[in-house]
């Protein structure tokens, strides 16, 4: 019996190494995304527990429409909720959509979150009935939905497109939340959160190299 040496070409070896690097990078990104989003939601639960236990009404620090002093609530409102039922309704979609939004990098995720919070908060402040106080992470939920779906359109990466399509199919029904409906539900926060997510996807889209003209 003869022994045969199998020669591995540089091309096949480098392709395998690239695949391992990409797989390792994706796994590390997924772990970091999961940890960050879990910490984010856990922080919201800690705040709600403190709001329940302490003799302080944290919800008063939400967005007070048309009140200049209420502008500070734009940053605080996503982390405040009107009771545990409200927080429970937001927690699962926030975990899922936040995780998917954070897969492409924690830096981009944080910037996208900031854009969503500002766009959603300003929209609520300008369009809600004066003196209305708005709290809740629904703007972030709709924002991450818009960000993940629009990211697939703007970046045109295969994985982002697949994720975007999957999210659009699984959560398409939440789109109805951007329309005026049940009293006490901030459709403004939903609408402008969605707008903020699309804006964030456009601002943070992957820049393509310019093709030189001859």
Automatic annotation (TrEMBL):
<dbReference type="InterPro" id="IPR050925">
    <property type="entry name" value="Rhomboid_protease_S54"/>
</dbReference>
<dbReference type="GO" id="GO:0004252">
    <property type="term" value="F:serine-type endopeptidase activity"/>
</dbReference>
<feature type="transmembrane region" description="Helical">
    <location>
        <begin position="84"/>
        <end position="102"/>
    </location>
</feature>
<feature type="transmembrane region" description="Helical">
    <location>
        <begin position="23"/>
        <end position="47"/>
    </location>
</feature>
<dbReference type="GO" id="GO:0006508">
    <property type="term" value="P:proteolysis"/>
</dbReference>
<keyword id="KW-1133">Transmembrane helix</keyword>
<feature type="transmembrane region" description="Helical">
    <location>
        <begin position="133"/>
        <end position="154"/>
    </location>
</feature>
<keyword id="KW-0645">Protease</keyword>
<protein>
    <submittedName>
        <fullName>Rhomboid family intramembrane serine protease</fullName>
    </submittedName>
</protein>
<keyword id="KW-0812">Transmembrane</keyword>
<dbReference type="InterPro" id="IPR022764">
    <property type="entry name" value="Peptidase_S54_rhomboid_dom"/>
</dbReference>
<dbReference type="GO" id="GO:0016020">
    <property type="term" value="C:membrane"/>
</dbReference>
<keyword id="KW-0472">Membrane</keyword>
<keyword id="KW-0378">Hydrolase</keyword>
<dbReference type="Pfam" id="PF01694">
    <property type="entry name" value="Rhomboid"/>
</dbReference>
<feature type="transmembrane region" description="Helical">
    <location>
        <begin position="109"/>
        <end position="127"/>
    </location>
</feature>
<dbReference type="InterPro" id="IPR035952">
    <property type="entry name" value="Rhomboid-like_sf"/>
</dbReference>
<feature type="domain" description="Peptidase S54 rhomboid">
    <location>
        <begin position="74"/>
        <end position="206"/>
    </location>
</feature>
<feature type="transmembrane region" description="Helical">
    <location>
        <begin position="161"/>
        <end position="179"/>
    </location>
</feature>
<feature type="transmembrane region" description="Helical">
    <location>
        <begin position="185"/>
        <end position="204"/>
    </location>
</feature>
């Amino acid at each position: 019996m003869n022994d045969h040496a199998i020669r591995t070409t540089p091309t096949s070896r480098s392709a395998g190494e690239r695949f391992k690097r990409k797989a390792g990078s994706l796994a590390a990104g997924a772990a970091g995304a999961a940890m960050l989003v879990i910490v984010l939601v856990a922080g919201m639960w800690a705040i709600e527990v403190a709001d329940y236990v302490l003799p302080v009404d944290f919800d008063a620090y939400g967005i007070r429409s048309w009140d200049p002093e209420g502008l500070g609530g734009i940053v605080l409102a996503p982390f405040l909720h009107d009771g545990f039922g409200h927080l429970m309704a937001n927690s699962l979609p926030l975990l899922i959509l936040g995780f998917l939004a954070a897969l492409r990098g924690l830096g981009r995720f944080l910037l996208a979150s900031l854009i969503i919070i500002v766009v959603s908060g300003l929209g609520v402040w300008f369009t809600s009935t004066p003196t209305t106080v708005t709290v809740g992470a629904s703007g972030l939920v709709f924002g991450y939905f818009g960000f993940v779906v629009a990211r697939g359109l703007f970046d045109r990466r295969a994985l982002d497109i697949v994720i975007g399509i999957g999210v659009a199919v699984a959560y398409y029904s939440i789109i109805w939340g951007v329309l005026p409906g049940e009293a006490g539900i901030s459709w403004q926060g939903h609408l402008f959160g969605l707008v903020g997510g699309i804006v964030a996807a456009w601002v943070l889209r992957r820049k393509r190299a310019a093709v030189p003209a001859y």
